């Protein structure tokens, strides 16, 4: 019985004859594929048609079609011999030659012994004397090793463990490293593994201790190198147990801020997934949303009641309200209500682990995951909490710092040039009159949309944002205008200028509508802030400005704080208008201006409504309006146009000839105001 013949394409009879004759000048004419050539060569040697000793001569006479290393050649030989050894129908004499071939390949160093040991069956290895124990014994040992590695569970009795290993572990982790290098981290990892192996420490408990030490030393970057040696899936479970501990009834203390920061840092570095740790946090979103909606509805009702007439009031109360005397306005009424609400919700921040994790993301400057949580927790209005708000302020300040420095530098240079002193305040030389190219990240506008009206808490930051937005939009305008000022900046714009301008305009509009204008309503009489906002607004066409004004008050109805500010301003405006006369014009006119500085839309709309009904108020109001700012005059124009365009009112009287009283009053008011401004 013989092996089935194969078609030898490359190991032909002519080649075998030349190799046997020892012709060293013989070469195969064309490159050959390695696997096919080795396969044919091995079968030729196993059939006894070619001696093993001439194998190297055959290999030297051919050129493979692909470049082959000695390791790849050895691996291919081992695979071919392994496959041939699995042929149980092979005759005994051929199998004997196959065994001799395997031995010769090892002795000639063409194939390392290790490759045969890891790929061949136990019986073949024993026959080829490549192992010293019998095949059956080797199989049994293999089963025992696999069982121990894959199925046997190591149980640790934590109460009976030696404390020496953990003591050395804590000592290793708690020693500080001033200059952490790659060698230091590698040495620490090596010592850590040695401690686990020498003292047989529980790896999960070691991981827990590593996280505990990292929580106490958040600035030590060595821990970022230690954590990857542990399974990622275990990190979220260990942290989850930590959070669940503080959810127990018998634990009164809040979750440490360091644990939130540690968790946020691990999520930021992608050691754990946000959703995997979020599942361990309490309270559940549905429960928190339901509780907040109940509280928010109550506050909205309270805000809507401001300025409403109490039908149950006695005559004496009504007389006291209308009594002549000094008029006072409360510019801080809405802020006082908000302060009380923040105090009431302070316990919520301590008990809510989801809000705590959001605070942690802000502490580690991870806006990507913080933005995800802001969107997920938006029904809770998380920015109302002062701690979260301050963290967001810090990120906004960091985002605009570079752009604000450029704008400030340009302003100082222009100011120095106007005085005749060409002074370079920053030690750099840039031509005066040109603006550096300013680009703002999209994350900044996401932050502004998230912070909303709560930017009022940091007046300085609000003005910085206004100046940066103005510089950003002017820079985009100069790009379209073909100015070469962008080339003077640190970065050069390479995209489409018109697309950049469109994007800049949309971003500025969004920032004005969602953040800057609502924040203005909560600032008690600060005309400087209004002027900064106007410096941004006047860059936009009037159609865009009027659209922003129209959307302004619609958003107020959803926020109790802003709604309370609007209702309070409306009530105070009506009280002042009742007493406005020539005798007290200066005092009450300034009060009107103070109200208009904070709530221009509400105050001016209320005044226009009163003028339409009471013509005698036109002159006192016109005199009082000399204290208004440019932003408030622009809003006044919008309010008047809005009243003219409002439907449902007849512009003519019933006789069809004369104008309605409201239209006459409005026209007279606008004419007197125009003449007053022209005369001034």
UniProtKB/TrEMBL annotation:
InterPro entries (UniProt xref): Tho2, THO_THOC2_N, THOC2_N
One Pfam family here: THOC2_N
GO terms under biological process: mRNA export from nucleus; mRNA processing
A GO molecular-function descriptor: mRNA binding
Species for this entry: Jatropha curcas
Name used for this protein in its record: THO complex subunit 2
Domain THO complex subunit 2 N-terminal: 36-413, 439-590
Any one GO cellular component localisation term in the record: THO complex part of transcription export complex
